[in-house]
Design a protein that fits this description.
- With 197 residues, the chain is α+β, with helices and mostly antiparallel strands.
- The protein has one domain (7-25, 35-187): Glutaredoxin, CATH 3.40.30.
- 36% of the residues lie in helices and 17% in strands.
- The protein is built from 6 helices and 8 strands, in the order αββββαβαβαββαα.
- The chain has helices spanning 7-23, 83-99, 115-125, 140-145, 175-185, 189-196, and strands spanning 42-43, 55-57, 62-63, 72-78, 104-110, 134-135, 152-156, 162-167.
- An 8-stranded mixed β-sheet has the order 1-8-7-4-5-6-2-3.
- It starts with 6 loop residues before the first helix and ends with a helix.
């Protein structure tokens, strides 16, 4: 199923891309990018699914959504050459640190041609400590989901259902963003069972 994009999201993405081109994606530091809040987050209609997808670890091991069964999942499609992506990713790192105790993982999946080396270099230079190095070889996920550009973030509940999506960069490092993701993913049932015992 095609990932439908609202007119508002398409216009927002167009503005982000235009701003990135004007500012120079490759030379403009991430700190110079301005990020909005997550107000553009769109709910995925119940029953809508995405085509199956897989991604790869830095050592080329295949991962799928099923590997994170029982956890909430935030998938972020990005690349080091994308200005809005590089501005957003440090806030994803903050989100990952905040949500780790809630059984929610943040998985940034890079479509960089330079692979793990490009991502690892970016992580080092931006002090990214809480995110795994994950890759979308040949932009297969982007093609399967038929998205118009990156960054794209999709939030999945603990049963693996897509709950919400955002096209374009945003500041995910706020308590508002963390609370929204927690709400969309649902409660950590394993943690709740431990509390009751």
């Amino acid at each position: 199923m095609r990932l439908k994009v609202s007119r508002r999201a398409a216009l927002r993405l167009g503005g982000l891309l235009a701003g990135g081109v004007a500012g120079g994606f490759s030379t403009r530091p991430a700190a110079a990018q301005s990020l909005g809040d997550i107000s553009g987050l769109e709910t995925v209609p119940p029953g809508q699914s995405l085509p199956p997808f897989q991604f790869y670890t830095a050592d080329n091991k295949v991962r799928t959504l099923a590997d994170y069964r029982g956890q909430g999942v935030v998938i972020n499609l990005w690349a080091t050459w994308c200005g809005p992506c590089t501005a957003e990713l440090p806030t994803m790192d903050t989100l990952a640190q905040t949500l780790a105790k809630d059984g929610i993982v943040v998985l940034p999946v890079s479509s960089d041609i330079g692979g793990a080396t490009a991502v690892q270099g970016f992580y080092r230079s931006h002090d990214i400590r809480h995110l795994p190095v994950l890759l979308d070889h040949n932009s297969a996920i982007l093609q399967a989901w038929q998205v118009p550009g990156i960054p794209v973030t999709v939030i999945f509940d603990r049963a693996g259902h897509p709950k919400a999506r955002l096209i374009g960069g945003a500041d995910w490092g706020t308590e508002e963003a963390a609370a929204k993701v927690r709400s969309l993913c649902g409660p950590d049932l394993a943690k709740a069972a431990d509390v009751r015992i």
